[in-house]
Amino acid sequence: MALKSTNPTTTKSWKKLQVHFDTISTTHLKELFKNNSERAEELTIKWDDFYVDFSKNRITQETLDILIELANEVDLKDAISKYFKGDIINATEGRAVLHTALRAEENSKVFVDGENVMPEVYEVRQKIKTFTDAVVNGKHKGHTGKTITDIVNIGIGGSDLGPAMVVDSLQYYKNHLNTHFVSNVDGDHHKEIVKDLNPETTLFVIVSKTFTTQETLSNANSIRTWFLEHLPEDAVSKHFVAVSTNIESVKAFGIDENNIFPMKDWVGGRFSLWSAVGLSISLSLGYNNFESLLEGARKMDEHFKTTEFDKNIPVISALLTVWYNNFFNAESEAIIPYTQYLNQFATYLQQGIMESNGKYVDRSGNEVNYQTGTIIWGEPGTNSQHAFFQLIHQGTKLIPADFIGFIESLHSNKDHHDKLMSNYFAQTEALMNGKTKEEVLAEFEGTNLSDTEKERLLPFKIFKGNKPTTSILIQKLTPESLGKLIALYEHKIFVQGIIWNIYSYDQFGVELGKQLAKTILNELTDSSNSVKHDSSTQNLIDFYKEKHR
């Protein structure tokens, strides 16, 4: 059954939110805390090793109650049931959305077209384990009998961003293999990666569902050409494996059929790291850590699927986005992890969130009359504090921010970790409270500033505060806790899409530029091909061709 189609702005709860917004929109967070001594406790969810504090958001319990009414009015529970059962909720592409099945327990039953997919899911997982163990333990050797030392993942989009983010985030847990990622079709990119590699000890993982993606195949073929400058053609089968559904094209490339890892069309690319797309994760971290990552995601799945909305972390997170995006007109959200390990996390979420919910047509095919999607950006603290926090603190834009922190550091450096976390706590407090005129004047006391200088400087040093943040505090960065964190945002994306009445899992907007690029490439490589363009594009093409002869 397809998802229901309800324009959220026509619901009773949306109208209640509009009235409620008018009464609360100018209320300062300091006032909300002053009026309710239990606020922090009431608006915090403690689950497993997660402590999620929503209290520094510009909401009251009434706000949450009405937002939950909205979730019920658009029948979110029914949508969640369809999501996990394997119904065709990606209706525009006629597909189920079942990345959750990839981390479900083996005895689960998840049906697609009447067939339980779980036996196949675990068959692929076993294949990943067997291959990973063989490479890591040195049983799988290269053509010349040498053990593998380097892994190169060749993919783009979800076939790159997910694995690259996880491997980078969990580098503390990495084994002896060196892992590299080639994504951009820019030839300089893959040249920089391979220039210091030994082809005799390198394994290449080509990730392309159709084995037709231009960027991935261009890189794979160029790397293959480089490889064959050093080793014979029959060596390809020892050094190249593929994650794909296009068996014949993969075999034609020279890859052994036993080294093809399948994937299904009910797993979208940007949610595919849990599938065979995660092969490079397993190779880099070892299969047990890959399995722990999956287990963490499974635990968050259960929390999301079974917990009432008022204590449901992904649901509350998504409803807050709707609140800020559609009522405060806040167009972006910042993701600020207080660990350098998660330096690629916001980049990864940019695809997950912006590709999923960047839609202007609702599930009935009508153009929406409200904002969907949010711009996602961020960098780790404390680096980000010295980059863009000025805009969040004193700029004219309202930018809700998620602060992600860990109680334990991985290398047990208490001095550094205390300094890091003191900034984590201080920034959310500063964003909430700001700095009043009276506080600035008090700071001026004891200085050598004249009254005239004090008066001149005063307006520049006042912070209004009232900037919303959510604090996600986790015990320790582990494969399991990262799995939970990623799944939290996956489900947040889903809930947002349900509320906004859009299809989150297609990506037709991505395809248009690709189609035009193919046409223009023909023009660049064959002067007899000519297509009419607008004058700007034509001038740019002509200038490029003239200078690039």
Produce the secondary structure layout:
Elements: H1 12-24, H2 29-35, H3 39-42, E1 44-47, E2 50-53, H4 61-73, H5 76-85, E3 111-112, E4 115-116, H6 118-136, E5 150-154, H7 158-169, E6 178-182, H8 187-194, E7 202-207, H9 214-228, H10 236-239, E8 240-243, H11 247-253, E9 260-261, H12 279-285, H13 287-306, H14 313-326, E10 332-337, H15 345-357, E11 375-377, H16 389-394, E12 401-406, H17 414-433, H18 437-444, H19 451-461, E13 469-474, H20 479-500, H21 508-525, H22 535-547
Parallel strand pairs: 5-6, 5-7, 7-8, 8-9, 10-11, 10-12, 12-13
Antiparallel strand pairs: 1-2, 2-13, 3-4
Helix pairs in contact: 1-4, 4-14, 7-12, 7-15, 12-13, 13-20, 14-20, 15-20, 18-19
| Beta strands, count | 13
Strand content: 5-15%
As a whole number of angstroms, the C-alpha radius of gyration is 26 Å
Round the mean pLDDT to the nearest integer and report it. 95
Shape: globular
Q: Would you identify the regions where 5 or more consecutive residues have pLDDT less than 50? A: none
Helical stretch count? 22
What does this structure look like?
The chain is globular and about 80 Å long. Strand 5 (150-154), helix 7 (158-169) and strand 6 form a beta-alpha-beta unit. The protein is an alpha/beta fold. Helix 1 packs antiparallel against helix 4 (61-73) and helix 13 packs parallel to helix 20 (479-500). The protein contains 22 helices and 13 strands. 48% of the residues lie in helices and 10% in strands. The strands form three sheets. A six-stranded mixed β-sheet has the order 1-2-13-12-10-11, sandwiched between helices. Strands 6-5-7-8-9 form a five-stranded parallel β-sheet, with helices on both faces. The protein has a two-stranded antiparallel sheet with strand order 3-4.
